Amino acid sequence: MAHREDHFFQHLITVVLSLVLLLMIGTFGYSWLEGWNWFDALYMTFISFSTVGFNEIGPLHTSSRFFTMLLILMGMVVIAMLSASVTSWFVRNELLIKRKMVKMKQKISRLKNHIIICGAGDTGLTIIREFQQAKKAFVVIEEKAEIVNELLEKYPEIFVIEGNATKDEILEEANIRNAAGLITALSLDADNLFVVVSARTLNPKLNIISRAVEKNTESKLYNAGASYVISPNMVEGMRMASVILRPTVVNFLEVMTRGEGLSIQMEEIDIPENSAFSGKTLAEAGIPQHTGLIVLAVRHIKEKKWNFNPGPSYVLTRDDTMIVLGEPEKIEKLRNLLNA
């Protein structure tokens, strides 16, 4: 791509230099043949190679007429070269964009257990940044072309679909049937409600998280099939209060969840089926000894209550979810041990 861009600019510079050279030749030629001043000669050169058909500055001698014909011919060639260069550049870029979109759609169709993010506003951008840091596969659906272009410019490697997330065909294009979850962060509650209904119909097992601006919309979203409903107003209020009431705790949690300033992070780990850890106590599993991680809490998939700071006698089972604290490489080591 860079090589093609360099080639285009080199060709464009060549054409521009040819135009300048042609103007210089024409100006000098008319000055020499007809004795005109430089401005009249330059003007005559312009109207000649541009073939606009304006009147001549004055009567031309036979030699000047031959010179004019040659100038027109050279001008037509240079202008044709310029037109061809610009046209081919636009066509090539358009084809490259279309080719890139086709490749992107092919890659999206092969995704599994990815997350679909509907809307790339302020909330959507925050979600995208978090998923980028977590290196989680995701597809963004955004209706506004300018936002799509900004996203691709800032994150060239992500998958973005330009379209309306409330339409089934756009959700299908995002490979919703093979997705693990969907987050709808559109600005209007009505649109979020529509996305939830469509997504739940297309994939009944999907984990759907929806944004709700109005408080009375929350119940409607749950009834429509949302797994979780997040109210920005409520979250902001709770956080503001917590910053005043327990600032150190809030700062600690932010560091843990974002991984900023420290080399450790808090992560959730699921115990898969047929794992060697299933049926063992925490003491037998020896997670701290083998990985150096701290197990903060454990919860079974069928239970709503968390077991915080579980003791060594707690028995791990498949579909348990552990919250662990430690360095990223140690978390990855635990994932490998669970899947061994």
CATH homologous superfamily annotation of the largest domain: NAD(P)-binding Rossmann-like Domain
Give me the side-by-side strand order of the main sheet: 3-2-1-4-5-6
The SSE order reads HHHEHEHEHEHEHEHHEHHEEEH
CATH architecture of the largest domain: 3-Layer(aba) Sandwich
- What amount of the residues lies in strands? 5-15%
Individual helix count = 13
* Level-1 CATH class name of the largest domain: Alpha Beta
User: Globular, elongated, flat, extended or rod-shaped: what is the shape?
Assistant: elongated
Question: Residue ranges: pLDDT <50 for 5 or more in a row?
Answer: none
Report the mean per-residue pLDDT as an integer.
Answer: 83
Could you please say which CATH topology of the largest domain applies here?
A: Rossmann fold
Distance between the termini: 42 Å
The percentage helix is: 55-70%
Find the count of extended strands (DSSP E, 2+ residues). Answer: 10
Largest sheet: 6 strands, parallel
Radius of gyration: 33 Å
Q: In terms of topology, how is this protein built?
A:
Elements: H1 2-34, H2 38-49, H3 62-109, E1 115-118, H4 122-134, E2 138-142, H5 145-154, E3 159-162, H6 168-173, E4 181-184, H7 189-202, E5 207-211, H8 218-224, E6 228-230, H9 232-245, H10 247-258, E7 265-270, H11 282-285, H12 287-291, E8 294-300, E9 307-308, E10 320-326, H13 328-338
Parallel strand pairs: 1-2, 1-4, 2-3, 4-5, 5-6
Antiparallel strand pairs: 7-10, 8-9, 8-10
Helix pairs in contact: 1-2, 1-3, 9-10
